What we know:
6-stranded parallel beta sheet, 10 helices, globular, disordered C terminus
Amino acid sequence: xxxxxxxxxxxxxxxxxxxxxxxxxxxxxxxxxxxxxxxxxxxxxxxxxxxxxxxxxxxxxxxxxxxxxxxxxxxxxxxxxxxxxxxxxxxxxxxxxxxxxxxxxxxxxxxxxxxxxxxxxxxxxxxxxxxxxxxxxxxxxxxxxxxxxxxxxxxxxxxxxxxxxxxxxxxxxxxxxxxxxxxxxxxxxxxxxxxxxxxxxxxxxxxxxxxxxxxxxxxxxxxxx
Length: 225
């Protein structure tokens, strides 16, 4: 039985990179290496991340390569991505957070800008694939964040209204996506790359803060999970 003090929230949807998984160095480096190998410019991780949310992998690659992306180009990317993602882990406290929210009865989902192929690989490699009722990938929506398309689909699949959901992400576009959908937002700032953003949203400095914000558990109760 849910003991939440927030009776209006029924579902929690998460961003993936920089929120659930510590990929904000490894994944951008895969993009930079692939783009350079395919004849594109030398890019810093910051330059890659700044363009990350323009859309899924093919669109990001096209942006920097300045040409259409072929299936061979994508195979080149995914070969490197799959090797790298095997070394990535969830942020400390993420598994316990997900366990605690599941015990409280929240439906859990993911909406990410990553492609279906990438997110399936990442969740499988990190052992999180069975934690979520639904996963919406960036190549399954018409418009990328901050548009609400993917979050709306996630809520529909979870069987909740958007106002009954919370979207948790590390980037400003995640907060804007939640606002566009009519969902509440929690800014996850436990990633080293995350920066505090102004606004009326709640902020979680570590995964256990999400449990506190959503369930109203005492510090003693939180320490048990």
